[in-house]
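Narrative of accomplishments. A recurring question from our advisory board has been how the design workflow behaves on a single, concrete structure rather than in aggregate. To address it, we present the structure tokens for one chain from the evaluation set, followed by the sequence designed for it. No filtering or post-editing was applied between the two.
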């Protein structure tokens, strides 16, 4: 197992653990920066998924992470101190989108530079 795959599994477990913790027990660094945390976690998950499964299309990564974000929010409906939040999903999706947008821009720039060098 590659380090990126192990890291992905550990982060997914950590995200699941924190997502289903009772509200009052949630660490202060998450409570005070909840939306930034959602953005950063899903940005990091996108990065890890890209390295852990490089042969799988990015489209599959995006859909999988989007479904994971929705699943977390739906499961949180079952907990007393938790609830469904469209804003959480929005920040999750913005983290995913930002990562793959950066990948797209990097590839466009790399392709443009290599094309100029070949002329």
């Amino acid at each position: 197992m590659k380090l990126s795959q192990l890291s992905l599994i550990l982060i997914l477990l950590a995200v699941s653990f924190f997502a289903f913790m009772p509200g009052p027990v949630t660490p202060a660094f998450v409570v005070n920066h909840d939306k930034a945390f959602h953005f950063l976690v899903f940005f990091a998950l996108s990065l890890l998924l890209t390295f852990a499964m490089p042969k799988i299309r990015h489209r599959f990564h995006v859909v999988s992470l989007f479904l994971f974000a929705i699943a977390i929010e739906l499961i949180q409906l079952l907990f007393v101190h938790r609830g469904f939040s469209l804003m959480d999903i929005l920040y999750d999706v913005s983290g995913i989108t930002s990562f793959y947008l950066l990948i797209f821009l990097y590839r466009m720039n790399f392709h443009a530079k290599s094309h100029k060098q070949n002329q």
